[in-house]
Write a structure and sequence with these properties.
The chain is mostly helical. 69% of the residues lie in helices and 9% in strands. It has a single domain, classed as Arc Repressor Mutant, subunit A, CATH 1.10.10. It has helices spanning 6-18, 21-28, 32-46, 62-84, and strands spanning 51-54, 57-60. It is globular.
Length: 86
């Protein structure tokens, strides 16, 4: 499967939690096209649409719902470990 960029995991988790490319971009201090590009990479990596556009934003697919908790927990663990080193 190859390597996986943790920044993509952050994009995924925020997209899942906010349902918004704009809110995700603002939170990560990146542009909306950067988030859209990252979503494309995520879709290719997991071979899943992950999110469908609706009138108000993004709705997670079944594949995204399966991925959310493991990725969210992994990021929380990494963030906690990094903070301990401060």
């Amino acid at each position: 499967m190859g390597t996986f960029d943790l920044n993509l995991a952050r994009v995924f988790v925020l997209l899942y939690e906010t349902g918004s490319v704009t809110a995700t971009a603002e939170t990560l201090h990146v542009t909306q096209p950067t988030v859209s590009y990252s979503l494309g990479k995520l879709r290719r990596h997991f071979d899943d649409e992950l999110f469908r556009r609706n009138g108000r934003g993004l709705t997670p697919t079944a594949g995204a719902r399966r991925l959310y908790l493991p990725l969210q927990r992994a990021l929380a663990e990494i963030d906690g470990t990094v903070r301990q080193g401060d």
